Amino acid sequence: MNGYVNWVAGLALIVAPGVALAASDTMPQGQPGAAAQGTTVPDATIGKAGAALRDVANLQEKYQPKIESATPKEKEGLSAQANAEAVQAIQSHGLSIQEYSSVVRMAQTNPQLKQRLLDAANQQ
């Protein structure tokens, strides 16, 4: 399971490119203290984000081989399909794309939050 944790941690850095772009279009930039807020993320939000991260990781695992072996035109369609499914997976856990992306971004700079997120992602 430790390999899965490391893989999910790496995935948190890349998520799905379209999901990250969608969030960056609507997230306020340069909020002071955003990383410091990571320790105040409620457990319920971490639980939802962890479950969403697990689902996104599963989608990444499902689509990555298909995308790698696809033609450039097929890659566009597969990426769009994977991205749409990732958005749906995130929202199915009661989070907006912005909320999910915010938690993932904060976890990238806050080791305690990252561990909480990974622990939540690894719970079945």
> What is the distance, rounded to the nearest whole angstrom, between the alpha carbons of the first and last residues?
12 Å
What Rg do the Cα atoms give?
14 Å
Total helical segments: 6
Order of helices and strands: HHHHHH
Shape: elongated
Overall pLDDT level: 75
Provide the structure class: mainly alpha
Give the low-confidence spans. Answer: 1-38
Name the helicity range.
Answer: over 70%
Number of domains: 1
Describe the 3D structure.
The structure is a single chain. 76% of the residues lie in helices and 0% in strands. The two termini are 12 Å apart. It has six helices and no strands. Mean pLDDT is 75; it is low at 1-38. The protein has helices at 2-14, 17-26, 43-68, 72-92, 97-109, 111-121. Helix 3 packs across helix 6 (111-121). The protein has one domain (2-7, 41-121). With 124 residues, the protein is an all-alpha fold.
SSE blueprint and pairings:
Blueprint lengths: L1 H13 L2 H10 L16 H26 L3 H21 L4 H13 L1 H11 L3
Question: Which labels suit this protein?
Answer:
124 residues; elongated; mainly alpha; single chain
